[in-house]
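Read as amino acids, tokens; as here:

___
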Amino acid sequence: PTGLQATATFANEVDLSWIPSTDNAAVAGYRVYQDGKEVLRTSATTFAVIGLKPATTYSFEVAAYDLFNNFSAHSTPISVTTLTSRTFRVGPTRVNNNAALTFKSPGALATANRNANRTLVQNGDTIEIDAANYYYDDAIANFYANNLTIRGVGGRPRIDGHARSIDSRGVWALYGRNTVVENVELVGGHD
């Protein structure tokens, strides 16, 4: 395969793409190599490598194989460095500021993320929530990133779901894979 390209898209992800190979017996697929080790066989010409470490350089190569299991030479290796993970700081004494990664509540961060088409909070990021009680809109949050860490700092923040109205309860929805929540108290809620 030729034209191998690698793009660091998140702190823990690199997207690969390459030009399709041709073969007299038809190309059956591709082997993708990360740092010299095979990580995948695929028939596609794109692949998202996930689960990587932030701010780390990786080398990638691709080799094609045909229906008879004959392998091409490896592509020219390409190196790429994953992005640095970011830390959002959330708390009632902080100011909502996307550029500074500070927000007054989990709800304010979730709203900013929604307004940015879910691109503000990214895979591998960390959200540190100051110890405080969060109610109503301040306690409503949903995040879609993978490998996200959400942790309470300076004590245990309390996300309160003790409201009579469903619209007023503290509700969290975490849609990403491998999300870790540490030192955060989620209380209340009604069915």
